[in-house]
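Hey all, sorry for the wall of text incoming. These are the three entities for the joint prediction.
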Amino acid sequence: MPEVETVRKGLAPVLVGQRIARVEARRADLRFPFPERFTERLLGQKVTRLDRRAKYLIAALSGGDDLVMHLGMTGRFSIVANEAVLTPGVDADDAAADPKHDHVVLHLAGGGQIIYNDPRRFGFMLLIDREERDRHALFRNLGVEPNGPELTAAYLASRARGRKVNLKAFLMDQHVVAGLGNIYVSEALHRARLSPERLALSLGDKQGRPTERAERLVPAIASVIGEAIVAGGSTISDYRRADGSSGGFQDRFAVYDREGFPCQTRGCGGTIRRVVHSNRATYYCPRCQR
DNA sequence: ACTGTACCCTGTAGGC
DNA sequence: TGCCTACAGGGTACAG
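and here's what came out:
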């Protein structure tokens, strides 16, 4: 999510207020097929806003549709203007051209272009009538934003009531907290000194009132996400060409991708472990996270 | 209803 | 050098 927010901030100044003059969709699908009459419905539309909800980018179009875009794992946008190419969240040195995976090009009336590149094609785009958007399956059951006022200990406890999934899976569920990804769940749990293996239901007592663990988790999530947004997101060094982000937060990982390194928590002395749940890596310190 | 697993697709790193 | 496997920041579709 911090990566998506970084992309949004980079894209907004060149996209908002612009009219779409031409659209190239260079294949029939990404993760899903493009919407019916995709290019026709974009043509001539003015982008009036660029918002983010969870990990979705939402371009509001003058005709009343929302262009909803998801970057998946490897999607990125580049801006082409006056011969210069800019990729929000990616250092110029790392944004080498990769035309093979340039799947969508939006030509703006002002002369600029927005290029969507996505090697793995886990991203997607769709068009939804703005009036219908919040009732759409993707948005209807989304959880709260991780850096917003709705994320409270009471909320977490009520959602965790009776849930026997572990905390890692619980926090990865976009219907609980919308926008927390694999990196930030590991980092937030470390800050909260909570084991990813602990059951979600332990965030509340029998009456569903938040425990002290839930109270710790809220500022842990909010601070990790807040700092990552300020840093411009994270880039895994070996993957810098593959996603929309080369911010600075990877330099501040306490646990993510740090298997075998000593835990930095003052006086802890533990060693970071890597475990796998449902095909996703989780990093934590078994000593200070309980 | 809830939970865990397999899978979508492509590129890269590391072992041999 | 080449071949093989494991793994990667996300999310969904199942089976049990």
